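tool=predict chain=A
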Amino acid sequence: MNEIQNSSSSSSTILDDKPSKINISKNLVLVDNNIEENDDFGEIIQYKENKEVENSSIELGEKKAVVLSILIPFSIIGALIRIGLNILHSYPGSPVFSLIYPQFVGCVIMGFCLARKGFIMESYLPLYIGLTTGLCGSITTFSSWILSIFKEFILPSTPHRGDLYNILAALADIGITLGMSVTGLKFGEHIADIIIQKRKIQSERLYHIAEKPSKLNELIIPDFICFGVGIASIVLVVTLSSTMQVNRSVLFAAVFAPIGTLIRWYLSKYNAIKKSFPWGTFAANISGSIIIGILFFLSNGVASSKTSCEIIKGLSDGFCGCLTTISTFATEIKTLPRKHAYIYAFISILTGQIAMILTIGIYHWVVGLSTTCSA
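tool=predict ok
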């Protein structure tokens, strides 16, 4: 993916051991091994004055077909990890809401990848994209988080509590999630320091990222493995979802997960519109929040069959869960200038809640929701 800059345009990256510096010119970007950036969507957030760079160039080709193939299995795995962690930690008396666990785990992996970005990219570029965009972006989810905040704000709770406590509960949801996500990014860096010690780079390396056609005679063995695993993953989950009669909502989630991830990857190019506000991330997160609000309304306000309920659940966990991401959102908040970070976070959360009001709240206040699909 376009982790350095959108894949439709070439970019170059220099990795060294100096403090993080980024210099944007038409074709050059300076970063170091520990740079923290919007790795799900590729737009670098911190900006400094342009500099001329004179170094030998190492070209890394981004083959779209290979990237698409590797995103499929990673998104399926990420969605299943998120669903599994949610189920594992959903028990009576749980000290914290279950969604915090996949958010934290995804951000830890993202922090690890960011800390050793150059090492992973140089080893195999599609692997870096698969880990950050595919795996981390699918383990974490923005839409389900926005929905959980809205439930704390508006929907009746058990046991019943007053409006003031609802507000406090929602604010706690926001604060705990953001705090644990940013902590996860830092913890991932610490793990990277232990597992893959920072290499001593004697000379700066210039990475030139350019889109390359996936010509058969230029493919390497890992590329063929990506194609094979991607095709096998789709065939497997589609076959299982159409034949098995148990846990079908999980299987449907695995089917819909790659679609959400690929759309999020495509929306990455819109992050370049404005340096201080990642529109690509915002568009993916808010559109996913709107869709999950509609799906929640359908599962709580419209009579549904068992199959339709399973499909709705699969769309919520798979498509919306992978279309939206907290790992990128937390990284952007961490790397944007402080003023822009607060504005971006506030607008994203506020817009998400407005989406919930329009898709769920109005009907709930006027007519009332009635659960038609079991959880």
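Confidence is low (pLDDT under 50) at residues 1-55, 200-204. The CA atoms of residues 152 and 170 lie 5 Å apart.
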